[in-house]
Amino acid sequence: MLLIGNDWDNIIGDEFSKDYYLALRSKLAAEYKEHTVYPDMHNIFNSLKMTPYSEVKVLLLGQDPYHGPGQAHGLAFSVQPGVDQPPSLVNMFKELESDLGVKRPETGCLIPWAKRGVMLLNTVLTVREGEPNSHKNLGWTQFTDCVIKKLNERKDPVIFLLWGNNAKEKLPLITNSHHYVLMAAHPSPLSASRGFFGCKHFSKVNTLLEQMGKQPIDWSLQE
Questions:
Q1: For the chain, what is the mean pLDDT?
Q2: Closest CA to 206 of 216, 214, 215, 198
Q3: What three-state secondary structure class fits 160?
Q4: Contact in structure between 120 and 76 (CB atoms under 8 Å)
Q5: Would you tell me how many other CB atoms lie within 10 Å of the CB of residue 148?
Q6: Catalytic residue among 64, 99, 145, 156
Q7: At a CB cut-off of 8 Å and minimum separation 6, what does 83 contact?
Q8: Residue 131 DSSP code
Q9: Angle separating helix axes 140-153 and 19-34, nearest 10 degrees
Q10: Can 64 be counted among the known catalytic residues?
Q11: Residue 80 and residue 109 in contact, taking contact as beta carbons nearer than 8 Å
C-alpha cells in the first residue's frame, strides 16, 4: 500500500485500497507507459508529503499540474527550481508584492510555502504532456475531495483559498463554520484583473492566523 510518510497515512490511508483508487491506479499505469505524464510518478503526492495533516494552516487549491516539460513536481502552482515562472505564478507574485511588499523571487519553486503549512493541492494530480485537464475524469477528484473533507473535519481551523471557478466548486465540501474561506478570481492572465489583483489574500491569511494565535506565513521563498 502507498505510504505518504506522515500523519496523512492514518487520515486517508484507507483510500488507497478502495475500488475507485485501484481503478485509477490501473489507468495511471497505462498512461505512464503509453504517454508522457507529469509530474514524475514519485512526485504525485508531494502536496501531502510536504504538508502533514496536523500542520496545514492554509489549503491553496489548484486545478491540475502544469503540462510542460520539467515544470510540475506535485505542488499546485509551483514549478521545479530553474524553470521559468508560468503566467499564473507571476501574477501571484505580483499580488504578493502589492499586498505585502515581498519582492518577486527568482525561483517559482514553492516548497518553502508547503513546509510552512500552505498545502498546495491540485484537484487532479496528473496530466498528459501538452493536454491540460486530460486526466480530469480518471478518478482523482474523488481522492482529492476526500482530502478536502478530512481537512473540513479537523477541529483546528484551516484557511481555504479558492481561486477561480474550479476551486470554488469545492465550497460545498467546507461545511464546518470554524474554518475560513477566501475566494477570488484565478491568477491566470485571463482572469487576474477581474478580482485576483487586489484581493490581498496573503495579508488576510496572516491576519487570520494571528487572530488564531498562530505564527503567520513567511511568504518569501527563503529556505
A1: 96
A2: 216
A3: strand
A4: yes
A5: 19
A6: 64
A7: 70, 71, 108
A8: B
A9: 130
A10: yes
A11: yes
Phi, psi of 190 (to 5 degrees): -70, -25
Please give the torsion angle defined by the CA atoms of residues 160, 163, 165 and 171, in that order, rounded to the nearest 10 degrees: 10
pLDDT at 222: 76
Beta-strand pair 37-38/58-62? unpaired
Any idea of the CA torsion for 41, 65, 131, 21, to the nearest 10 degrees? 50
Task: Kindly report the backbone phi and psi dihedral angles of residue 183, in degrees, each rounded to the nearest multiple of 5, phi listed first.
Answer: -120, 145
pLDDT by residue (tens digit) across 45-77?
999 999 999 999 999 999 999 999 999 999 999
C-alpha cell at position 10 = 492514518
Provide the pLDDT confidence category of residue 87 given band limits of 50, 70 and 90: very high
pLDDT band at 195 (very low <50, low <70, confident <90, very high): very high
